[in-house]
Amino acid sequence: MEKIYMDSLITALAEVKKLGYKTQFGVEGNHLISLKTKKSFLPDQVKIVHFYRFESESNPDDNAILYVIQTINDVKGTLIDAYGISADSETATFMRKVKNIHK
Predict the structure, then answer these.
(1) 83: exposed, middle or buried (C-beta count within 10 Å: 0-12, 13-18, 19+)?
(2) pTM score, two decimals?
(3) Residue 48, exposed/middle/buried by CB under 10 A (0-12, 13-18, 19+)?
(4) pLDDT of the residue at 62
(5) Cβ burial, residue 77 (10 Å; 0-12/13-18/19+)
(6) What percentage of the chain carries pLDDT values higher than 70?
(7) Rounded Cα–Cα distance for residues 90 and 83 (Å)
(8) How many whole angstroms separate alpha carbon 62 and alpha carbon 69?
(9) Strand (E) positions, 9-45?
(10) Exposure of 7 by Cβ count < 10 A (0-12 exposed, 13-18 middle, 19+ buried)?
(11) Within 10 A of 52 (CB to CB), how many other CB atoms are there?
């Protein structure tokens, strides 16, 4: 995936959506879940195509990371999480298990 420079989470979401990454994902336990179809994927069925970090100078609670994801059966989408102290522990644990990461 070509590197895209983004200055906000909203801009990044709009740009990756144009590239076909339209599914919204969440994490439940050891599975990545499509929020629309409820299909689930294990960490070895997921590729992190790219990720973007956004930092707030005024409020560390606003720090976020956008993961651009493609699954083994070519479902393309995104997952948003906080990072640092506000990160979701379930999402962080899942992402540490994903070995196919590109940037």
Answers:
(1) middle
(2) 0.86
(3) middle
(4) 65
(5) buried
(6) 85
(7) 12
(8) 22
(9) 23-28, 31-34, 40-41
(10) exposed
(11) 23
